[in-house]
Specification:
single chain; 324 residues; alpha/beta; Rossmann fold; 2 domains; two-stranded antiparallel sheet; 13 helices; 11 strands; 17% strand; globular
């Protein structure tokens, strides 16, 4: 069996054939799938510009950050590119519970020949650095300052990582790749939507070679994705309902941009609505359970107006005021 530390891309694949992008680019890929390679989602729709940015990361070892509103599929986009390249992938969510020790490593007590001994357990950074893997830092702008300065060490292309407690310097595997996703590009919680995000050190943001933005998909593409996710609605009658769902989601996004709403519908919420409709077969009930109950009560009349415009029927008044 091949040692994962010795694995390397052993083939070149066409961007045109693999992603349908009309460019004469060849990308390194693995011919065999490792246990850490994400599963391929055949329903996933790739954004050409974002895909090219991510592929540049795999091809030329560029540090790539994908920025955008929630629910656009930023992390999934990276994973699905990796899945088609058979590139091992590790994803870490930088929530408030991730500590410096989680990333670097720590001493742990283990049993060896019936005796308790202290042994250093590698954190996710040294583990990933030594392997041909794509490390994704999810919610990058939510990381704690002490954690972010640990990450800064590896943002240089040939950045070595020093384990001070072990007197050891780790050199990155030639096929280690680094990606991140963020909602705010390190600018903080400017619009009140992303509580917990941090203002990032500009010197650190500057170390990301490529920053790309993933926006919501065009109307018809989003309909196609929801239809692929909820296959029982992939028929002529229900596609009209799906189109109305996506249209309503677009109205909430416009309303959020205009300051009329504080909660918008992401594609993830639209899929939840379609899945709940599949259960209840009641558009109003499934809408309330999927989205309306997340809204401020003062804004529900606005949302009810959006609902009426998209489905030519009134949302029951009890729903609009948040009553059972």
């Amino acid at each position: 069996m091949t040692n994962i530390l010795e694995m390397k891309p052993d083939q070149q694949v066409s961007v045109r054939d693999l992603f349908g992008i009309d460019m004469d680019l060849m990308v390194p890929a693995f011919s065999e799938r490792d246990a850490h390679v994400p599963e391929i989602d055949k329903a996933y729709r790739f954004n050409a510009d974002v895909t090219l940015a991510i592929l540049a990361g795999f091809m030329k070892d560029r540090r790539v950050m994908v920025q955008g509103l929630h629910g656009t599929g930023k992390s999934t986009h990276i994973e699905q590119v990796a899945a088609r390249l058979n590139w091992p992938c590790t994803r870490v969510n930088l929530d408030g519970h991730i500590s410096r020790l989680d990333l670097v490593g720590k001493d742990t007590i283990v049993l060896r020949d019936g005796k308790q001994v202290t042994e250093f357990q590698e954190g996710i950074i040294p583990w990933s650095l030594q392997r041909p893997t794509a490390l994704i830092f999810d919610e990058y702008d939510a990381g704690r300052p002490d954690v972010m300065f640990v990450i800064q060490r590896i943002l240089e292309r040939d950045g070595k990582f020093t384990l001070l407690d072990q007197n050891k310097v780790i050199r990155p595997n030639p096929y280690f790749r680094l990606f991140a996703t963020a909602n705010t590009v390190g600018l903080g919680n400017l619009n009140g939507l992303y509580h917990g995000t941090q203002l990032l050190n500009h010197a650190q943001v500057d170390r990301w070679n490529i920053v790309t933005t993933l926006n919501y998909l065009p109307h018809q593409e989003e309909v196609e994705i929801v239809a692929a996710r909820v296959e029982t609605m992939n028929n002529e009658r229900d596609r009209g309902i799906l189109s109305g769902m996506v249209a309503l989601a677009e109205l909430t996004r416009n309303g959020f941009a205009a300051g009329d709403l504080s909660t918008l519908m992401s594609p993830r919420t639209v899929i939840s609505w379609a899945e709940n409709y599949e259960i209840f077969r009641d558009l109003g009930v499934s809408f309330r359970l999927s989205y309306l109950n997340k809204c401020d009560e003062a804004e529900r009349s606005t949302v009810a107006e959006y609902y009426q415009r998209c489905f030519d029927e009134e949302l029951p008044e009890s729903y609009a005021v948040g009553m059972s």
